C-alpha cells in the first residue's frame, strides 16, 4: 500500500465483506482508532473519534512483501526465533496471536522446537457500536497451555493492548509467558505486564507530539 487512499479503499472493502473494526485494524496493522477513521473516510461506517488535526496519530506497517512469500516469511520468522533463542531454558510452547501472528509463530516454533498454540484476541469482535463482551480464546486445534512456559508471537505492537490481553489469558490458564517477539513495535516497549518484548523493527516517532 502506497498512500492513505489505498488504506481507505482496503478498509472499505474489508468493511463491505463484513469484517469488524477490530479485524480491519488487524488486517491493516493499524490501531482500532485508525481503522475506525479509515472506514469513516470510505463512507461505510459511523463517524469515529479523531485527533485535533482530523486524523489519528498512527504508523502503518505494510509487511505484505514478506507475508506473501513463504521463503521470506520463513527467514523472517527464523530471525524472530533467534531473538528468543536464549530466553528461557524450559520453554516448549509458542503462542501465535491470530491472525497475522500465527504464521510467524509456526516458524518460530519450528526453529525453537516447541509446540504451537494460537490465541484469537477480543479485538476481532470489536466494533464502534458494540460492547466488548466476547473474551479471546485459545484454539483447541493446537497445543494447549497446561501450566507450560511459552513464547508469544505477533506481527506488530500498536498500543500493546492485544499483547497484554494474551499475556493475561496465558496466566489465567496457568501458563508462564517467558518472552514476546514481534516483527515491528510501533510503541517502543521494553516489556508488557513484566514480560520482555523483542522486535526486529522498532518504530520511533520523532516530534513534539510523539515519543518512542
UniProtKB/TrEMBL annotation:
A Pfam short name: Pribosyltran
Organism classification: Archaea, Methanobacteriati, Methanobacteriota, Stenosarchaea group, Halobacteria
Record region (Disordered): 38-59
Family matches, as InterPro entries: GcfR_halob, GfcR-like, PRTase-like, PRTase_dom
Single biological process term from Gene Ontology: UMP biosynthetic process
Limits of the Phosphoribosyltransferase domain: 69-187
Description of its domains: Contains an N-terminal DNA-binding winged helix-turn-helix domain and a C-terminal regulatory domain (or effector binding domain) resembling phosphoribosyltransferase (PRT) domain.
Primary gene name: gfcR
Keyword tags: DNA-binding, Glycosyltransferase, Transcription, Transcription regulation, Transferase
Described purpose of this protein according to its UniProt entry: DNA-binding transcriptional regulator that functions as a regulator of central sugar catabolic pathways.
MF (Gene Ontology): DNA binding; orotate phosphoribosyltransferase activity
Listed name of the protein: Transcriptional regulator GfcR
Family: Belongs to the purine/pyrimidine phosphoribosyltransferase family. GfcR subfamily.
Entries under PANTHER family matching the protein: OROTATE PHOSPHORIBOSYLTRANSFERASE (PTHR19278), PYRE-LIKE PROTEIN (PTHR19278:SF41)
Organism field: Haloarcula terrestris
Amino acid at each position: 500500500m502506497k498512500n492513505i487512499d489505498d488504506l481507505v479503499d482496503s478498509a472499505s472493502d474489508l468493511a463491505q465483506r463484513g469484517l469488524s473494526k477490530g479485524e480491519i485494524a488487524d488486517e491493516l496493522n493499524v490501531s482500532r482508532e485508525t481503522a475506525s477513521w479509515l472506514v469513516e473516510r470510505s463512507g461505510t461506517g459511523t463517524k469515529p473519534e479523531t485527533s485535533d488535526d482530523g486524523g489519528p496519530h498512527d504508523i502503518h506497517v505494510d509487511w505484505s512483501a514478506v507475508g506473501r512469500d513463504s521463503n521470506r516469511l520463513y527467514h523472517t520468522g527464523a530471525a524472530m526465533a533467534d531473538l528468543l533463542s536464549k530466553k528461557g531454558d524450559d520453554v516448549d510452547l509458542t503462542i501465535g496471536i491470530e491472525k497475522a501472528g500465527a504464521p510467524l509463530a509456526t516458524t518460530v516454533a519450528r526453529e525453537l522446537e516447541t509446540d504451537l498454540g494460537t490465541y484469537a484476541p477480543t479485538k476481532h469482535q470489536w466494533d464502534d457500536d458494540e460492547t466488548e463482551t466476547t473474551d479471546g480464546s485459545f484454539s483447541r486445534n493446537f497445543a494447549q497451555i497446561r501450566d507450560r512456559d511459552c513464547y508469544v508471537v505477533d506481527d506488530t505492537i500498536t498500543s500493546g493492548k492485544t499483547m497484554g490481553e494474551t499475556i493475561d489469558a496465558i496466566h489465567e490458564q496457568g501458563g508462564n509467558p517467558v518472552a514476546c517477539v514481534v516483527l515491528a513495535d510501533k510503541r517502543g516497549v521494553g516489556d508488557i505486564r513484566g514480560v520482555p518484548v523483542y522486535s526486529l523493527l522498532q518504530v520511533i516517532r520523532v516530534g513534539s507530539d510523539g515519543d518512542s
